[in-house]
């Protein structure tokens, strides 16, 4: 039986509504946090503000190896001054005597009284004296104390995903530990009678489970903690049992971390696609059970109420691996990132010229594997070419691609070099 298909935008609206509720739960501290060290912080989501514990820089800092001077004492090019002393990085701030220059190293405090640093390259050194060959401008090569940050100033906001730069900034602000959101726990179950795991030798009619490991990797990359639950057969009772045990593993009422259940396969319209029925028997309610997209049409999104806790969100993803990659990117990832406490995540699309054009059918939003040459064309937009592929089971072609070309549902053709939106693939 065909179910009503939601347009992609409407399905995304459902996800956005769920994200609003998840954000409210984060605000009300429904979900927990934990301490994490700088070395474990990559990819974690900050749960608190990082503030500057002191001014940055904490002193007027020289950005060059050179000579600190008073600009007012230099009437033009070629002025000669005695060198009164030297400050290395890590040494305390000195005082510049009147009528003299002071040697400073990069990163050293500029002596009090100086208002410029002349680069070593623009000075002639002779013994204890220097000739300043180029008249400096006031402030040159000095970053004033507090210019980068004031004491107590916000350096990082809660909800930020920590990358290398954020970790560096936290370290410079005096944070060896940081409070981060607990990672969402994501249960992953692959279904299908034909499936065996990657280390098995399949019979000719069997298929290796690529969705499980791929989903685990996608979950990790989006900040979640995957739990691989193995395989389930296309058999209502077994499926029911495996789903029930997956559901039980999630969210005890007192557990303070978000949970998600991802099931791959068995959501289409075939006689042995039993996931929806099994979930329904366990009390699931569905927000949608099909999206007007290709690949990914049979996508299911719903939830199961959990006594005393937040409802468990569930995605029934189509079995084809490319459909899994696409539906994860478009629907699962934004929800998962919000569960992890990220506040500003948006699926990032870019505009590119579709070099060879496209012809097809209207009615479904297409997400087609493409190769984007990130080198822009003359008019500054990159170019993208569709990859030849054999449909949504063809992971080989997706691996060759670096993006998904989005073709709106109302179009049946695109001329060569028309602009399209692309999503870079993970
Ligand atoms: P289904 O959605 O269950 O009808 O499956 C659609 C297609 O995806 C079939 O060709 C399946 O063999 C294939 N498939 C389903 N699950 C997996 C999986 N975990 N890994 C690789 N291929 C799969
Ligand atoms: Mg199947």
List the helices and strands and how they pair.
Layout: H1 8-27, E1 33-37, E2 50-51, E3 61-62, E4 66-69, E5 79-87, E6 101-104, E7 116-119, E8 123-126, E9 129-132, E10 142-143, E11 154-156, H2 164-172, E12 177-181, E13 185-191, E14 195-196, E15 207-208, H3 211-221, E16 225-232, H4 236-249, E17 259-264, H5 275-281, E18 285-288, E19 293-294, E20 300-304, E21 312-317, H6 321-339, E22 349-354, E23 358-359, E24 365-376, E25 382-386, H7 395-400, E26 403-407, E27 413-414, E28 418-424
Parallel strand pairs: 5-6, 13-16, 13-17, 14-15, 17-21, 19-24, 22-25
Antiparallel strand pairs: 1-12, 2-11, 3-10, 4-6, 4-7, 5-9, 8-9, 18-20, 20-21, 22-28, 23-27, 24-25, 24-26, 26-28
Helix pairs in contact: 1-6, 3-6, 4-5
This protein binds adenosine monophosphate and magnesium ion.
Describe the structure.
With 426 residues, the protein is of the alpha/beta class. It has 3 domains: 8-32 and 182-339, MoaB/Mog-like domain (Molybdenum Cofactor Biosythetic Enzyme, Chain A, 3-Layer(aba) Sandwich), CATH 3.40.980; 61-143, Beta Complex (Molybdopterin biosynthesis moeA protein, domain 3); 350-424, MoeA, C-terminal, domain IV (Beta-clip, Beta Barrel), CATH 2.40.340. 20% of the residues lie in helices and 30% in strands. The protein has 7 helices and 28 strands. It has a 6-stranded mixed β-sheet, with no helix packed on it. The chain has a 6-stranded mixed β-sheet with strand order 16-13-17-21-20-18, with helices on both faces. A hairpin with a 2-residue loop joins strand 8 and strand 9. Helix 4 packs across helix 5. Bound molecules: adenosine monophosphate and magnesium ion. Adenosine monophosphate is lined by residues 190, 192, 194-195, 207, 209-212, 264-266, 268, 270, 273, 318-321, 393.
């Amino acid at each position: 039986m065909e179910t009503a298909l939601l347009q992609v935008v409407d399905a995304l609206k459902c996800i956005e509504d769920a994200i609003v509720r998840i954000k409210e739960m984060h605000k009300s501290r429904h979900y927990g946090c934990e301490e994490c060290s700088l070395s474990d912080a990559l990819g974690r989501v900050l749960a608190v503000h990082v503030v500057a514990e002191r001014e940055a820089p904490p002193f007027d800092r020289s950005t060059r190896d050179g000579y600190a001077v008073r600009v007012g004492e230099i009437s033009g090019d070629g002025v000669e001054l005695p060198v009164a002393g030297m400050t290395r990085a890590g040494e305390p701030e000195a005082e510049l005597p009147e009528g003299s220059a002071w040697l400073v190293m990069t990163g050293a405090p500029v002596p009090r009284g100086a208002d410029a640093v002349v680069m070593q390259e623009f000075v002639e050194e002779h013994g204890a004296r220097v000739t300043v060959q180029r008249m400096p401008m006031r402030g040159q090569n000095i970053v004033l104390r507090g210019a980068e940050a004031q004491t107590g100033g916000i350096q990082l906001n809660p909800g930020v995903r920590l990358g290398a730069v954020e970790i560096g900034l936290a370290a410079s602000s005096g944070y060896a530990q940081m409070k981060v959101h607990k990672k969402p726990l994501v249960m992953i179950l692959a279904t299908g009678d034909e499936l065996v795991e990657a280390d098995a030798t399949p019979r000719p009619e069997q298929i290796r489970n690529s969705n499980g490991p791929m989903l685990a990797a996608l979950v990790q990359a989006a900040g979640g903690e995957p739990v691989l639950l193995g395989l389930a057969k296309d058999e209502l009772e077994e499926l029911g049992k495996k789903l029930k045990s997956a559901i039980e593993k999630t969210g005890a009422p007192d557990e303070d971390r978000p949970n998600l259940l991802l099931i791959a396969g068995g959501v289409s319209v075939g006689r042995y696609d039993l996931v929806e029925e099994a979930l329904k028997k366990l009390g699931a309610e569905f927000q949608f059970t099909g999206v007007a997209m290709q690949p990914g049409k049979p996508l299911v999104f719903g939830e199961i109420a959990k006594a005393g806790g937040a409802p468990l969100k569930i995605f029934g993803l189509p079995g084809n691996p490319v459909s899994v990659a696409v539906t994860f990117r478009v629907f699962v990832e934004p929800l998962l990132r919000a569960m992890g406490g990220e506040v500003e995540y948006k699926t990032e699309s870019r505009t590119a010229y579709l070099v060879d054009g496209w012809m097809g059918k209207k009615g479904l939003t297409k997400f087609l594997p493409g190769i984007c040459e990130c080198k822009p064309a003359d008019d500054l937009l990159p170019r993208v070419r569709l990859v030849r592929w054999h449909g949504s089971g063809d992971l080989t072609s997706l691996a060759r691609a670096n993006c998904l070309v989005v073709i709106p549902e109302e179009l049946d053709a695109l001329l060569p070099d028309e602009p399209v939106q692309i999503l870079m693939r993970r």
